[in-house]
Amino acid sequence: MSAHGRGLKPLVALQELGEATNACRECPLGENATQSVFGEGPVHARLMVVGEQPGDKEDLAGRPFVGPAGRLFDRAVAELGWSRDKLYVTNAVKHFKYELRGKRRIHKTPAQREADACRHWLESEISLVEPEALIALGAVAARSLLGRHVAVMSERGRWHEDAAGRKVLVTLHPSALLRGDPEQKAAAWKAWLADLSLASKVARAARAAA
């Protein structure tokens, strides 16, 4: 069977899974979101990047990591010599949670019950993509992947293992850098790149295999 043939069934399954998340009402978030935002990237990508949830821009576009935090992630990918189109990028929670302030929709962190309700979608994504390693961006993603509370600041910058024995690198979500102290911006950026660089071997292997 050709490589295209091997990837076809998982690709169709991922498309169907994405459509199913759009109809999901297992928690209240789907009622108010524009649409679900499912993952994107190559089938059987070696490296999967998992964020928290879609933001306002992602909710409107229907694509992950296209807002300000996504642009910061793209900058990091470029500086590390990775290829964004060789990564599978998704979120732990598939719908945008927000509160209205005037006409603005302000991000709210998903409650644990909301992240738990979405976990089976993420697990199904992982089983179809079968990544060699994963990056958890932030506490919500880390808990969804590792199944426990994760103190990101003390556990960042090293590899952990999930219940299936897969490697999971924990670090900050890029939105944390955007919210951080401007005077610490350069140092925070350098530290974040150092964290992410631990996955460079996997990321660059994916690029070379393309």
Structure notes:
The protein has a single domain, classed as Uracil-DNA Glycosylase, subunit E, CATH 3.40.470.10. The protein contains 10 helices and 7 strands. The chain has helices at 3-22, 29-32, 56-61, 68-80, 112-129, 139-146, 152-155, 174-179, 185-197, 200-209; strands at residues 47-51, 88-91, 98-101, 104-107, 133-137, 158-161, 167-171. The model is unreliable at 1-6 (pLDDT under 50).
Brief characterization of the structure:
With 210 residues, this protein is an alpha/beta fold.
Which blocks of ≥5 consecutive residues have pLDDT under 50? 1-6
From the structure provided, what is the oligomeric state, counting identical versus distinct chains?
single chain
Biggest beta sheet summary: 5 strands, mixed
Assign the CATH architecture: 3-Layer(aba) Sandwich
Order of secondary-structure elements? HHEHHEEEHEHHEEHHH
* Global mean pLDDT: 93
In whole angstroms, the N-to-C terminal distance is 18 Å
Strand content: 5-15%
| Number of individual domains | 1
Number of strands: 7
CATH class: Alpha Beta
**Share of helix among residues?**
40-55%
Strand order of the largest sheet: 2-1-5-7-6
Can you identify the CATH superfamily?
Answer: Uracil-DNA glycosylase-like domain
Q: Can you tell me the CATH topology?
A: Uracil-DNA Glycosylase, subunit E
| Spatial shape | globular
